Amino acid sequence: SSGINAEYGGVGMDLACGTCFDFHKSTDYLFLVGTEEGKIHKCSKHYSSQFLDTYDAHHMAVYAVRWNNFHPRVFASCSADWTVKIWDHNYSEPMFTFDLGSSVGDIVWSPYSATVFGAVTDDGMVHIFDLSQEKYEPLCQQSVVQKKKTKVNHLAFNKHYPIIAVGDDRGNAMTLKLSPNLRKALREKTYSKENEIAKMEKLLELVREPSNK
Predict the structure, then answer these.
(1) Fewer Cβ in 10 A, N or C end of the chain?
(2) CB 175 within 8 A of CB 154
(3) pTM of the shown model
(4) How far apart are CA 122 and CA 198, in angstroms?
């Protein structure tokens, strides 16, 4: 579908089809919607006829949007345009952009660290990042498919054990154990919501510029 044209407040808007959405972790009326044209809309259940904000996020379809599990302003997105982007929802430009070299089917935040996330790509790879250790590239990249042309399109972290589950477009699911450097906070039980928020806030302050808003 090419979307529909609607009139909001007398202004015509071409609405592309939604491809994904995610509700805020603590503000229950706030949610994000990714679209096939690459835009992300910030929406409220209180205002059904308008968007709170729109981000020109990607050049192709958005496959996942995810609010951070700890920091209330941060969300992540991934797209067919090969990129993963990390956002502060008060700013129109991303704080971090990563080109993974292939269409990115899913992105998921770790349940035990505000700065750890994983992504999966059409070339059969899993990518694990920790922004507090490395801001420019993943800490780990691993191929997880046995057959060529198999696309990995879903990812999930286990909340209690250092394990991730990965699904592909052939209906297969597999589990992988995270290496010790990727599960330090989980192993040592050192994380708290306050500490994780502060850790992410420190990162945002390093990259934020007044002109970004």
Answers:
(1) N
(2) no
(3) 0.86
(4) 34
Distance between CA atoms of residues 159 and 110, nearest Å: 8
User: How far apart, in Å, are the Cα atoms of 140 and each of 26, 78, 117, 125, 127?
Assistant: 30, 18, 11, 10, 6
Distance of alpha carbon 20 from alpha carbon 95, whole angstroms: 21
Which pair of structure tokens corresponds to residue 67?
Answer: 């609010």
68 and 74 Cβ atoms separated by less than 8 Å: yes
pLDDT digits (tens, 9 = 90+) for 154-198: 999 998 888 999 999 999 999 999 887 766 655 556 668 899 999
Query: CA distances (Å), 53 to each of 1, 31, 81, 136, 139, in order?
Result: 23, 11, 22, 28, 33
Q: How far apart are CA 114 and CA 58, in angstroms?
A: 23
Most confident of 11-20, 108-117, 178-187: 108-117
Q: Give the length of the chain.
A: 213
Q: How far apart are CA 116 and CA 97, in angstroms?
A: 15
- Distances, alpha carbon 182 to alpha carbons 56, 127, 128, 154, 163, in Å: 32, 12, 8, 19, 10
